[in-house]
Amino acid sequence: MDLHVSLVGRRDLAGQIYAQLRAAILDGRLRAGEAVPPTRELARRLAISRNTVAAAYDRLAAEGFLESRVGAGTFVRETGSAARGAPAASPLRPRARWDEVAVWPRPMPGIRWDFRAGLPDAALFPYEAWRRIMAGLLCPSALGDPGAAGDPAGLPALREAIARHVGVSRSVRAAGRDILVTSGTQQALDLIVRVLLEPGDTVAVEDPGYPPVRMLLAAAGMRVRGVPVDAEGLRVDALPGDARAVYVTPSHQFPLGMPMSLPRRRALLDWARRRDVVIVEDDYDTEYRYGGRPIEPLQSLDEDGRVLYTGTFSKIMRPVLRLGFLVAPPSLHRAFRMARYVSSWHAELPAQAALARFIDEGLLARHIRRSRRAYRARHERIAGLLPELFGDRLAVVPAEAGLHLSAVLPTGTDDAAIAARALGAGVGLFPLSEFAVTGPAVPGLVFGYGAVELPAIEAGLRRLRAAAGD
């Protein structure tokens, strides 16, 4: 235990030590059973007499705060106190916009059938291979100079590995120098806002769309405008004329699931070029495609260098592995590197090195192939069961990729109430209306299948049908 005791002046030193230790015990900062430093050691650290420290310890022991154990030392006795927080009264107040930000998704206790979107199957991850790589890296020789600062853009080996991976699996045009390693897509978007936008700028997002994105934009002072989507994706004709940036998920629209058609993608690029607008392309789960032709990303169609491409490894591997990336043109390399430096310097170095080896050894590609087979079977199972169990009540939105399917309910249906009743029956899933931005909320349900095993799907959907009622 590293005990902090500070002395003020030279008066009643024993009293000062007594008061500080007593407060720490009552606050719970020193817990029952913890050892306090020997009197000789604390006296040396404070440059005072050992008798002074002993006097403070004796007083605390007499009052029942400490106890001595022969041959073991002096320990804190049980007091039943809880840790004291920061002072309750403070003149400091947050900016008003933070009152409007809430955690998403909300906690869902008691889930037995987990149909929440965006969760991968933790059981599919190759833990033994990952542990082997991490164990080989957690040694001084592998980590290199402990005094060396990490590159804000990320380890060169990882950036090169990501460039090769997305070049093969996603047709993204990028070299290692174009990659910035981030702590996920949210941080990539935060860096884009810092580097390219000003408070008050208008940012267009898909409606419905991913809640954390619009929450981040609003918290940064952006004016968020929802743009409707149809069967071909984002409606370019509905984009606001004052937009400075557009955030899209063209490969697999979140949450509805359709891809953006090639004519629509070209129209978006042309619109952005004419209006000098930046496009943020979030390609969050494109590795999991189960049919149809691969979708060419906007980034590979872009000839003007105005598309910023973001991706994450959380959907492929584990959400706890907070590693993602941003692909940017050379004109922005330095600015993004500096923005990363001043905000959080760099991502965790051992995790970066491990991911680089994981990719280079072919383990990531192997894991994607294996998990894709499992997710395809779940995708097909849900797509086949929904019409069978719900009939015309649920209209499944066609989708051939990702870790979720969406289905639309009749107009006027209270999908939030259905989701609440389902949760009471042990079924966790999101209502589609929860993803509305500024337009009318479309009622429906979003069925994630990353966290529910194939044999459990039918039972979960039947439980949902019973909870939903007529």
From TrEMBL:
CDD domains, A to Z: AAT_like (cd00609), WHTH_GntR (cd07377)
Keyword Transferase tagged: yes
Keyword annotations of the record: Aminotransferase, DNA-binding, Pyridoxal phosphate, Transcription, Transcription regulation, Transferase
Transmembrane segments: none
Keyword Transcription part of the UniProt annotation: yes
One GO molecular-function entry: DNA binding
Top-rank lineage group of the source organism: Bacteria
Residue ranges of every copy of the HTH gntR-type domain listed in the record: 11-79
InterPro entries: Aminotransferase_I/II_large, HTH_trans_reg/aminotransferase, PyrdxlP-dep_Trfase, PyrdxlP-dep_Trfase_major, Tscrpt_reg_HTH_GntR, WH-like_DNA-bd_sf, WH_DNA-bd_sf
Xref: PANTHER family: HTH-TYPE TRANSCRIPTIONAL REGULATORY PROTEIN GABR
UniProt similarity note: In the C-terminal section; belongs to the class-I pyridoxal-phosphate-dependent aminotransferase family.
Name of the protein in question: PLP-dependent aminotransferase family protein
Species of provenance: Actinomadura geliboluensis
